[in-house]
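Action item from last week, closing it out:
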Amino acid sequence: MSLFGALAGRVRDGLRRSRQLLGDGLDALLSVGRPVDDALLEELEEMLVAADLGAATASTFVHRLRDEAKRGRAVTAADVRNLLRGFLEETLEGAAAPLHLDGKPAVILMLGVNGAGKTTTTGKLAAALVGAGKSVILAAADTFRAGAIEQLEEWSRRAGAEMVRQGAGADPAAVVFDAVKAATARQVDVLLVDTAGRLHTKSTLMDELVKLKRVLSRQLSGAPHECLMVLEAPTGQNGLAQARLFHEAVGLTGLVLTKLDGTAKGGIVIRIHQELRLPIKLVGLGERVEDLQPFDAKTFVAGLLPEP
C-alpha cells in the first residue's frame, strides 16, 4: 500500500503563489522581441533571488543562460523557461529520498523549532503511516511547551495511533525510554518521537536532543533510523541557520519542508538542498492530512514552473 496519495495535484496547488511569482515575472521580463542582453539577465537574476533561490544558484543559472544565448540556443521566452526548468531539475537531482522504515520498530526523531509545525507534521505522518497499514506509537517527548502533549494526543486520536506520555515538565528521556519499551513489546512498526523546539540557539536544548538520541541508540540497535528536521519554507536564511545547528548536534538524515502553501518563495527548496546537502524527504503543502507528501524534484519543478 502506498504511504501517500496523489502528489502532483497537491504540489501544484501548494505552489500556486510561487508559480505566480516566477511565471508572471518571466512573462513580464521575456516580453515579445526583448533580447537576452545584460540588462535582461540582471533583472532575471534579481527576480530569481527574490524567489528565494539564493544568489549563488541565481548567478549560476544566469551565466548558463548567457552562454546559451551567445550560441543562439536561448532566444525566446519558451527557450528560457525550458532552460530554467531543466536547470532546477538538475540542481535538485538527488534531493529526494524515501523514509527509512526497515527497523522493527523504525524510530523517527522529529526535530525543529517551535512554530515550524513539528507536532502537526508528526501527527500527519502518523496518519499517513496508519493509513498505509502500519502500527504506530507517538512519544510525547516535548514536555516543555504548553499544550504540546495535548496537541499530540489529539493527533493520536485522529490518526488512530497509540501514544506514550508523561506529565508536563517530565524528563523527555524517560518518555522516550518508556516509548521504546512499549513499541518493542507491542511489536509496532513505527515509533514517532515529538521533541522540544524551544531555544534552538541554547546549548541546553541541543544537549537534551543528544541525550534523547543516545537513549534511543542504547535501547535499540540502529535507532533512531531517521532524524528529521521540520523547517518552515518562509523562514529563509534563518531556517537554514537553525538546520545547521540541529545537524551539527544530532546529525540530521533529512528535512521536512512545511508551509509551502503560505509563501511565494518555494524556491527555498533549491537553496536548502544546495547549502545543506541534506535530502528533502517530505513537504507540507497545506492543512489537511493528505497535504504532507514525499518530495519529488520533477513534480516540484513542474509545480513551480509548468510548461507553457
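Closing note: The mean pLDDT is 87.
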